[in-house]
Amino acid sequence: MQRRQLLGAAAVVPTLLAPSLATAQPPASVAKVRATPDRLIDLSVCTRPFRPQGPRLEVERRFGKHLVHHYGHGGSGWSLSWGSARAVLPLILAARERRIAVIGCGVIGLTTARVAQQAGLKVRIYAKARPPEVASSGATGMWSPESRICTEAHADAAFVERWEAMARHSFKIHQSLLGLAAAPLEWRDGFVLSDVPFDQPLAPVDDGEPDYPDLQSRIADLHPHGAPLAPGEHPFRVPHVRRFTQLTFNIGHYQRLLLEDFFREGGEIVQREFGSPRELAGLSERCLVNCTGYGARALFGDDSLVPVRGQTARLIPQPEVDYLLLYRGHRLAMVPRRDGLLVQVQRPHDFGNGDVRVDREESAAAVRLLASVYA
């Protein structure tokens, strides 16, 4: 099965298809989502920065600067951020500068800055916006380190090895953040629903997306195994249901944690938008790290970046709803975050779509679809 035929949260699906190591047990209670469009409290759109070659981690000399590029993580930015920042650190240290500048204040920019601080560097971030007014704020909030990370044609042995190292290091750091008072990360149980048996492939979707590599087998040991549920063991009207467990991010809390740690270590943020690369020459720092994500397409002329539109919506929080829900085939996801129940449907024409205008009816339809799955 190709990744594009499945859900936006691809990290879950291979786990769900793996043999179960435990006997399925009926959930003690499953609270029903109050899924009505009038409970929508926030809608946002972001463009995931997909590069067929995978993330750009390389150095160039420009305008007398040691310029490190660190962007293009597709839908894996939050998931791979710590491992990717560690991978790019040697390129930063090669400049032999004690003060560096990071361009961009999304998750890649913030974690790159934190890793550089941990290496003893002084860091200043230049960005046109800071959280929550950054593209990273529009993420769904599930750990998905392989989501649109590269095309199958570019997944050679060297790339896969580097990706696995990034995924494992990120996962380890994320586990160290569990249990904090603000709950930036949490493990959640959930259900994946399907109208057809899970061993049957879904109908192909003409969405223009390329084929993606199957990377999940490399980190299968990081996921608990899923288990099928029989009728009566779940509250859904959909005929095929599996239970799974997944790591999730509470985006707002996580962003605040990163910012607090960054400022605590002496970090600075300068609000500034760059219209051209030449404007970087005027910065006092001689080592710059470009973490502009999809913004690198306009700023640096990187036409290899492909926008993947993603609209998310949040329903009023329901603390009693503590489970994930994925609807295979309909590409629906519901993530129970602390700032609301996030709902998203991935549409066939989102790939290559850079339109960031909010479509309220799109999210209202997703909410109605969510309401329809309950018996």
Structural class designation: alpha/beta
Instruction: Give the N-terminus to C-terminus distance in angstroms.
Output: 29 Å
Shape: globular
Mean pLDDT: 92
Largest sheet, strands/sense/barrel:
8 strands, mixed
Residue stretches low in confidence (pLDDT < 50, at least 5 long) are 1-24
Query: What's the gyration radius in Å?
Result: 20 Å
Helical fraction equals 10-25%
β-strand percent reads 15-25%
Lateral strand order in the biggest sheet: 1-11-14-13-12-6-8-7
Return the string of H and E elements. HEEEHEHEHEEEHEEHEEEEH
Q: Supply the number of helical segments.
A: 7
For the secondary structure, the number of strands is 14
What report would you give on this structure?
The protein is of the alpha/beta class and 375 residues long. Helices cover 23% and strands 25% of the residues. The protein has an eight-stranded mixed beta sheet. It has a six-stranded mixed beta sheet with strand order 2-3-10-4-5-9, covered by helices on one side. Helix 3 (107-118) links the parallel strand 4 and strand 5 (122-127). It is globular, with a radius of gyration of 20 Å.
